[in-house]
Every structure is written in structure tokens, then in C-alpha cells.
Amino acid sequence: MYMNDTQLATQIATQVISDTKFWIGIIGLLGAIVGSLLTIFGNVLLHWIKQKPQNELERSRIKMLKDMLSDDRFPDKWRLLSTMSAVIGADNEETKRLLFKAGARGSEKADGKWALVEIILYPNLSDVRNQVYLAPSERLTNKV
Fold first, then answer.
1. Contact, 85 vs 91, CB < 8 A?
2. How many domains does the structure of the chain reveal?
3. 79-80 and 104-106: which strand pairing?
4. What domain range includes position 78?
5. Nearest Cα residue to 68 out of 59, 58, 55, 81
6. Which of 21, 60, 79, 99 is the most buried (most CB within 10 A)?
7. Is residue 128 part of a domain?
8. Average pLDDT of each block of 10 consecutive residues along the chain (144 residues)?
9. What is the pTM of this model?
């Protein structure tokens, strides 16, 4: 039952070829995974690099809007949308979007004026807060 040299060489060659195909497959799979991850990372990095100037511009505009809305030269703290749009160099819709991100609200009079919510609360907000958050015995009653 001994193999002759030719059969042994053939068996060894077949095993080497089989092992080589296995490792080539593993290396190919790892290459595909690494390539995919690098592509995803590259796309995220490229998007971040492209968006960075826009994000910085947005942050500086929001800061400028907050500074305008808390300016002590305006005691009532309301500012016109048209003025703020001109100052930050944006159209009205973009300015409104940034104002919301800054924590501002428009006037109920629809006169184009805006203020920070933390400075100018909504009218009757204390009444709403009184009715919602306080126990019935603690609520204020309006007696006429």
C-alpha cells in the first residue's frame, strides 16, 4: 500500500493548490472588506470637509443673530427680520431657519419682529404653566 513517488507528488501538489486557493479567497475577502471600509470612511470624510465651511458659516450667523437679539441698545429686545437678514447676508427663509436654531420666535403681531424665547416668553405662558404644573391647591384663581 505504499504510494509511488509520482502519486505522492501529485497528492502533495493537489493539497498545495487547494490550500493556495483557500488563502487567495481569504485574502480577497479581506481586501474587499478593507476596501469597502476605506470607501465609506473616505466618503464620510469628504462630506465633512465639504460641509465644514457651511457649518462654520451657520454657527457664526447664529451667534450674530443671538448677539443682535440680546443687544442692550434695543430695550424691548425685538428686531426686524429684514434687518437681521441684511446683517447676516441671508435671505428671509434662511434667516428664519437660523433664528429657530438660535432659540428665537416671531411676534404674534406678524410685524416681522423676532426675539429670543429665553428673553421674551410667549404671552400668558405663566398662566399655562400655572394650570399644567401646579397642584390644584397651588393654582392661582382668577376671581372677577
1. yes
2. 1
3. unpaired
4. 24-122
5. 81
6. 99
7. no
8. 74 84 89 95 94 92 94 89 94 94 89 88 55 50 42
9. 0.58
